[in-house]
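Q: Got a minute? One more chain.
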Amino acid sequence: MKSFSIRSLSRANGSWCILPVFLALLAAAADDEPPWRSKQIAEWSGEDANQVLSDSPWAKTFTPILTAPEDSGRRPGGIGRELGGVGRDAVGLALPGIAVRRATGGASQGGESPAGQSTGSSSSEPPKLTLRWESAMPVRTAELKVHDNNAPDVDESHYAIAVYGIPDRMIEGDLQKLGDQLRNEAFLKRDGKKDLKPSSVRVFDMAAGRVVLYSFPMSDEITRADHRVEFTAKIVRLDLDQSFLVDNMVWQGKLAL
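A: Always. Here it is, folded:
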């Protein structure tokens, strides 16, 4: 039986010049691979686990869109938020990678700093959030590795996505009622399929801030054939929209969601 090798490949093309290029591409791909990918979970360092929890196929740290307060940008003539959320008395702030709308003129309104502290004026920047596929086995294991006490319990019959980093002032009041409201404003979107709605949304009051947990029924299975899943949600004034590449969410040969 004829064997295949890099050497025979280069000869078949009539030149050895392909070999250095091929090896360079392999080396570049290896450099892009995060260290935790090549390790067993028991070998993960704290740094490996933190990367899985903040910047991996199962977790994204990003800045959402911050919309104007409900009572801003409105005038008796109907001019206001109907025009893309920016009224006659609002101005769009162009900040790198984010879209922020802030009311101008009139009385100043209280807001939140990125750390969730009151600034005494309108918010100028949205907080940085972490969106984490909480039900995935690599995520649960990484949380144990770093002793993450903020990790909520997950129902094994549901896909669970948690949002971390929400300032306390942005979600006040009855947390159970708020969860019911947020349930109507969240979806998992897949090409060619009906949007998957959460069966429940829970809001937890943690030491590091509020955590919102979205639970989607596994009865509507997500498979590798879906390729990409987009999570969209609205949390009071925060608009969230993040995509996950299903093909990358594989651990030890199995889809880990």
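A: Residues 1-19, 21-30, 74-122 have pLDDT under 50 and may be disordered.
Q: Perfect, thanks.
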